[in-house]
């Protein structure tokens, strides 16, 4: 499953200068997929298939028109002509892999293909600042897991301190169906939701703006070929059904959630909006950064056979450094930059993406190409790795102090949350996910 | 909101003879919408917009081609040209209302329009037995409520007998997001799902075929115009966002559900399949059968203002008689007909469809045209109104005895479940929903 090839070669550099900067998320070794539009394209409303390279967007749709792509890669470009990546992803990972290979050669500053593309750069490259980035797929279904065990323990400790982790946690990759319609690309403002709060058996709830608005740091992944209803995907093959990854913010209204969620789970407390970063970092680009799945303590049960795959145990995890920054109205007015409040890593997931996908289909549920699956909040074991305000402030009781002296227990109007993700490993070029940003408005 | 017109006139009869039979679900006063294909249409793969009339399907797509529809009704037919009703529903209730009016006139045995259509009947009518009925919309999102209070009490009694109804129940129209991808039209076989069962804090679960497979008797309704993200629909207008209703079977694996659902709600226990009856009975056709919302005991709280609408309280309920029939392999082998095991009525819903829809949007969640919303299991207060096997058999402890002596605690392979729904009221012609059928296969 883990194959390294010339696209991962750390010596490969690009004729797009910004792609060779050490701090870019998008060196030639990454090449994530997205959907964009731009006033620089006529008509400006049309959506093209793009690949991020340094500070630019490489127009895959135009590259195909110019005859720069061939075979499966040309087909891959055509499959995105509707302005979403669903049809491309429906073909599984092979066309995406071939496209990434050919685009890598086209952007290489030492190849003949690169020389040819470079001559056409005016028609192929746009500054990302001149592009609008859209959802990469039309998300037919969105599922959110609960695979961050440190999050589950931290959240459970606030509700049921005597028994923080549910009895099923180490057996079942717990998940719920999220709301597909309200998934939005990074940058979309988040309106503070209204909802019922404060109810209890002996007390009437009130209805109004959420007072405990929060974020959750997650990763998302996109389904490729999908499966037919009634035909589960074995865990050993599940990785092949995952085309790529992004960052995901599962905005949550804690006061609404607490009151509404028994017995059927979260509903209005989460369906007012979910943000994703616009670039799909392919599973191929992430190959160098795979790692063994989280080590289970000896006292933990082994996964049931339908969730057990030795290969996945070796490569099921991903080493992605994750960070959360916050900026407030007052900070921006004072010229202060966003401040980092959380630092975590995707390696803390108890269940691997392959296990999540296999479990999702194990009862027969069909996954459709382009469906979005969230991992659940990825907290780590230390204080600064608690990846939501609920956890970080211990249920709002220990607010975070910001550089300008402001305090935050939960999000205020004007607060902006930014996620980043970076993959680093000796011998490889660092790649990143771009950002997932959302600002709260009243 | 409740408007009666000539389409409800009990004296109107049709030149389609089967529509005048007293036991038909589809007299000329009904005219429900659906999507069908037929070998009688060339090409057989094309999906046409149809309206049920007696034992026939009236081809709306063809009627438009023949010039029988005009104005908004002609536009309504065009909006379904993609083979789904999503685009039609996106226009709100007006085009559907006008189409139903014009088709009523076309099928009338005493009108000039009817005479004209009757002359073209060979091109307009197909026996329903020669048609395949599809999902009426491409279901982008499916939400399932929990609005049957007798179900909530019965189910809660099995889990937490000391406190059967959750503390939030009389304040919050509880719901969860269901799985849109696995919604299927009536007649689709249901494969018995595998899943984890029997786990507990001190006991390992096993994985295998569900041993406690069940159904839930619900109604579904379809979203019309939808709303933008962040813009709630007031309860007083919510009825206008509901185009029509169907029957819905929320198949459930009770053993899987019990183990997996804490804390985030049902997931694999329900996402292996949901069945809907194929005909959308329009809100217009149901106008004569609206009734006051369920009477709340004086000790119950009044709905919060965002859920309170005096008009909806007068007309929010629907008087739909609901029944569940079961037939087994052995019964069919012995030539025995399906036996009725449950009889209920939609009037037992604690929350009205308008309240459900208003609540759904109250935090800002966007509903899309053609989205499907389930009411939750509609049990009544008496024993034979308990509308799932879980309730009817008291958690499987008191099996139902069938006419041939077989017993059922939960569903066996080969068992077929059929829902029916009928609306009766003095002074009006009875209308029905057709059937929602599913058979269990291994």
TrEMBL record, chains A, B:
The keyword Metal-binding applies. Coiled coil: none annotated. Residues 183-205 are annotated as: Disordered. Pfam families: FAA_hydrolase (PF01557), FAA_hydrolase_N (PF09298). It comes from the Bacteria. The keyword Hydrolase applies. Gene3D superfamilies: Fumarylacetoacetase, N-terminal domain (2.30.30.230), Fumarylacetoacetase-like, C-terminal domain (3.90.850.10). Keywords: Calcium, Hydrolase, Magnesium, Metal-binding, Phenylalanine catabolism, Tyrosine catabolism. InterPro entries: Fumarylacetoacetase, Fumarylacetoacetase-like_C, Fumarylacetoacetase_C_sf, Fumarylacetoacetase_N, Fumarylacetoacetase_N_sf. Its cofactor is Mg(2+); Ca(2+). Residues 145-440 form the Fumarylacetoacetase-like C-terminal domain. One of its GO terms (molecular function) is fumarylacetoacetase activity. Residues 29-136 form the Fumarylacetoacetase N-terminal domain. Pathway: Amino-acid degradation; L-phenylalanine degradation; acetoacetate and fumarate from L-phenylalanine: step 6/6. Its EC number is 3.7.1.2. This is fumarylacetoacetase.
């Amino acid at each position: 499953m883990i194959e390294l090839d010339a696209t991962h070669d750390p010596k490969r550099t690009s004729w797009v200068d910004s792609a060779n900067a050490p701090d870019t998320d998008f060196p030639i070794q990454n090449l994530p997929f997205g959907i964009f539009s731009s006033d620089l394209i006529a008509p400006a409303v049309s959506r093209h298939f793009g690949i991020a390279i340094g500070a630019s967007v490489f127009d895959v749709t135009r590259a195909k028109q110019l005859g720069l792509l061939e075979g499966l890669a040309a087909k891959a470009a055509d499959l995105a002509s509707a302005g979403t990546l669903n049809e491309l992803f429906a073909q599984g990972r092979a066309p995406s892999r071939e496209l990434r290979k050919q685009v890598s050669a086209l952007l290489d500053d030492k190849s003949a293909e690169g020389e040819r593309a470079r001559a056409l750069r005016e028609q192929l490259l746009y500054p990302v600042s001149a592009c609008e980035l859209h959802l990469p797929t039309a998300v037919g279904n969105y599922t959110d897991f609960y695979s961050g065990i440190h999050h589950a323990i931290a959240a459970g400790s606030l509700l049921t301190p005597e028994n923080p982790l549910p009895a099923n946690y180490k057996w079942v990759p717990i998940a719920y169906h999220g709301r597909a319609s309200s998934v939005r690309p990074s940058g979309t403002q988040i309106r503070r939701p209204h909802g019922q709060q404060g109810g209890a058996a002996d007390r009437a709830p009130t209805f109004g703006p959420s007072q405990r608005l929060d974020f959750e740091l997650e990763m998302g992944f996109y389904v490729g070929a999908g499966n037919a209803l009634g035909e589960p995907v074995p865990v050993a093959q599940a990785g092949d059904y995952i085309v790529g990854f992004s960052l995901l913010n599962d905005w949550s209204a804690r006061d609404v959630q607490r009151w509404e969620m028994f017995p059927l789970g979260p509903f209005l407390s989460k369906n007012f909006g979910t943000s994703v970063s616009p670039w799909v970092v392919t599973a191929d680009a992430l190959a160098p950064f795979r790692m063994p799945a989280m080590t289970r303590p000896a006292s933990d049960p082994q996964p049931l056979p339908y969730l057990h795959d030795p290969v996945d145990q070796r490569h099921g995890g991903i080493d992605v450094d994750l960070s959360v920054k916050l900026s407030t109205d007052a900070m921006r007015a004072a010229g202060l930059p966003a401040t980092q409040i959380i630092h975590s890593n995707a390696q803390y997931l108890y269940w691997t993406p392959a296990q999540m996908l296999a479990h999702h289909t194990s009862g027969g549920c069909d996954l459709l190409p382009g469906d979005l699956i969230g991992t659940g909040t990825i907290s780590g074991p230390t204080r600064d790795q608690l990846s939501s305000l609920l956890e970080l402030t211990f249920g709002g009781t220990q607010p975070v102090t910001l550089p300008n002296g402001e305090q935050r227990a939960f999000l205020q109007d004007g607060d902006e949350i930014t996620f980043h993700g970076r993959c680093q490993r000796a011998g490889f070029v660092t790649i990143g996910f771009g950002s997932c940003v959302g600002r709260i408005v009243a």
